[in-house]
Amino acid sequence: MISKVLSNKIYYATFTLAIFVIAIHVSYVDYLNPAVVGYDFSFFIQRFFIVIGDASVPTFFVISGYLLFSKFTLKGYPKMLLNKVFSLTIPYFFWSILAFLIMQIIYPLILGGTINLTFKSAIINILMSEDCKHLWFVRTLLVFFICSPLLYFIFKYLKKWSIVIPIVLFFVNLLYRPEYSGILYWIPLFFVGSYLAYFNVSFTSKIQSKVVSISVLLAFIFLALVFTINHTEYEDNSYYFYRFASPLLAWVSLDLLSPLFKKEKVREIFKSSAFIFFSHLFVVTAFKQLFQLWISVDSNYHCALLFFLVLIFASILDISIAYLLKRSAKPVYKLCGGR
Fold it and tell me: At what angle do helices 148-158 and 136-146 cross, to 10 degrees?
């Protein structure tokens, strides 16, 4: 069983990581692309927030593996998969279909274009969430959940020696570097999270030191600055090591947020991370287009202003929608990813 302290931290950690994901997708916009606007400072902002936000996906995989194996049993496996249909598969198709309708049908009709679709292309588009790219994470996670009995037997028969497997896979991936959004890339981290839960390795320290958390946070920021200033490529070995170490950096740094969780209303907001993850891309896109109507992209100052306005307003609106839906329309909230 997960302790209350750990359960609380997972809530505010995943919430913060969901905001990191928003920052990443705000960074991937035209007005921060130096090839488009030619401003070095805009490129610095883009890279810095992407590097910081890059800790989110690795940490999500570690936490997901931990949560699964903290209560995994072979007997409960069918029920677990059924639960995932409601918590992941339904919102996956909800957002994938919505994105498909907007991008492939509504936009062409509004802009006077033509709709070139076949039944096969439409089905593939929805199944692979081609117009809602960030949902690749959900597909990968579902594969791990389906294959979880395999991990269970590995832990059962190899016992603690099974930790050798993710280490070997890490270095194999280092050499052959599979696709970022692919299953092979993330097996080591999901495996580690599952391993920690199966063998009951504590995810939290009994002695929480603010000095340690602040020191790790400063190291986290320092690494992000180094990678940004040096224009380190995402495929470089140093960045690969950073990406897989980032869950530890993020996890220790986030101890600084623990006092906030003592407030009931704040705690409820922290529980909206799944909804934020599923919906944020739509909100980010809307605010990007809205603010670009008022602010021209003609200087570093305007680029920076646009970035922070989109990030702040998109985050606030997404959190507010999640809070209101959870309070007044819970079935809709669950449909959109509230579980």
Answer: 50
